[in-house]
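This section describes the prediction task in plain terms. A model, or a person checking by hand, is given the sequence of a single protein chain and must write out its three-dimensional structure as a string of tokens. No templates, partner chains or ligands are provided. The sample shown here is typical of the held-out split.
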Amino acid sequence: MRPADHREDFREILRLVRPGARVLDVGCGEGDLLALLESEKSVDGRGIEISAAGVSACLTRGLTVMQGDADRDLAEFPVKAFDYAILSQTLQAVREPRTVLANLLRLADRAIVSFPNFGHWRVRLALLATGRMPETAVLHDPWWSTPNIHLCTLRDFTALCADLDLRIESAAALTTGRPARAMNPLGALENWRAESALFLLSRNGAPRVEAGAEKADLFG
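The expected answer:
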């Protein structure tokens, strides 16, 4: 894996997050993104990670992380406890994507979500040519061992956002080895072109609410 500061999705997240913001990284792994945000943007960062090994690695780095499951534990966070909730390359691995996405925009003013696009042309070509589940630079695990259980296309995701009445503030296409590229996610060609996608989301018509100090209690 490339260093955290060389990942295209991390660079785009760094661009989107304002300095000093309150950030929750959901599915933070070993804390690469959280550490980068704290170093580069001086954020007040927290993480939630299901893996005990990941939590241990984060704590070793001095990061504030709790062990938890995004499908179950996001509902325990208070409303508007954060400025940003980040779900980086994790949406496709949760059991209840709709519920998780709704919870992100309940506990934060904005959500940053990235995921592999199953409508990318390489995926379509692989399915057409081999008749088997594709393996690509982004979807690199065979079907029988992949953690991905809810793969989707750009069109699927934008339809879900519309159903949840979420505002797409910006969207970027990600291709391995290239900088993020701004895109119109409703454009028909982008569903073919984007290898992965990253969205900045907010709730339509929702006022910004300042969070209280109660969020700190969730991390002891």
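For orientation: The CA atoms of residues 98 and 178 lie 29 Å apart.
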